[in-house]
Every structure is written in structure tokens, then in C-alpha cells.
Design goal:
Blueprint lengths: L7 E7 L6 H4 L9 H16 L7 E12 L8 E12 L2 E10 L2 E14 H10 L3
Antiparallel strand pairs: 1-3, 2-5, 3-4, 4-5
């Protein structure tokens, strides 16, 4: 399948003791952490591309620009929505927005690259010597 702009993705979670700023170490509060917000946005983008990838390829995140606009307490549902806005060879760029049950909590841009899995992992393993 051809990768064209407009492809959308979604990922969802519930804020729990495991994904708060306090549990992650990025703060002292029991609210959804920014690192987990980034991961949720990446998940939405990644999963939207899976049906379009050739065997032996994957995508990896390379850049995130994010504004975390509002706090979300434990127990609330959170979801991220992505839309592919640029597909240029191996380069993929997305707009991302995240919401909780009360409204928008974050927005930004995310960049991913299509990689050949074996080659990528071999290069990473070379670092071990």
C-alpha cells in the first residue's frame, strides 16, 4: 500500500499509578506524565503506519515537539490522535493531539523514519563492540 498524507491513528490509556509523573520520576504529582504523553502520541503514529509497511521494515521516532497543556488525574481516560501530514521517502511527519475526558491536553508534531529492521538492529548492536 502507498503511504499518503491523511492517514490517521489513535492510541488510548487510562491514567494509573504506573504512568504518573510521580511514578516516572518526572515530578512529584499523581497526574499523567509528559513522558507517557509522548509515548502515547508515538504509539498512535506508529500503529497508523503498520498496515502500510513492507515486510522487514518498521518506523522509529526521531523528533517530538510537544506542548503538554493540561493535567489529567488518575482514573481518567486519555487518548492521542495522529494524522500523517508529510510522507517524503522514508521521512514521515505527523500532527498529534491528545485529549482526556474534559478536552485537549496536548498537541504537537512528531517525526518518524521508515527503517529496515535487520540493518537498524545490526547497527545498534555494533555499539556493544
Amino acid at each position: 500500500m502507498e503511504i499518503k498524507t491523511g492517514i490517521k491513528g489513535r492510541a488510548e490509556t487510562v491514567v494509573s499509578g504506573q504512568n504518573t509523573a510521580k511514578s516516572y520520576g518526572s515530578g512529584f504529582l499523581d497526574v499523567f506524565s509528559t513522558p507517557h504523553l509522548v509515548a502515547l502520541m508515538e504509539e498512535a503514529c506508529h500503529h497508523s503506519m503498520v498496515p502500510y509497511l513492507e515486510d522487514g521494515t518498521d518506523t522509529v521516532g526521531t523528533k517530538v515537539e510537544l506542548e503538554h497543556l493540561a493535567a489529567t488525574p488518575i482514573g481518567m481516560r486519555v487518548w492521542a490522535e495522529s494524522e500523517l501530514t508529510r510522507a517524503d521517502g522514508r521521512l514521515l511527519e505527523f500532527t498529534v493531539k491528545a485529549y482526556d475526558e474534559k478536552g485537549l491536553i496536548g498537541e504537537g508534531k512528531h517525526q518518524r523514519f521508515i527503517i529496515k529492521t535487520d540493518r537498524f538492529m545490526a547497527k545498534a548492536q555494533e555499539k556493544l563492540g
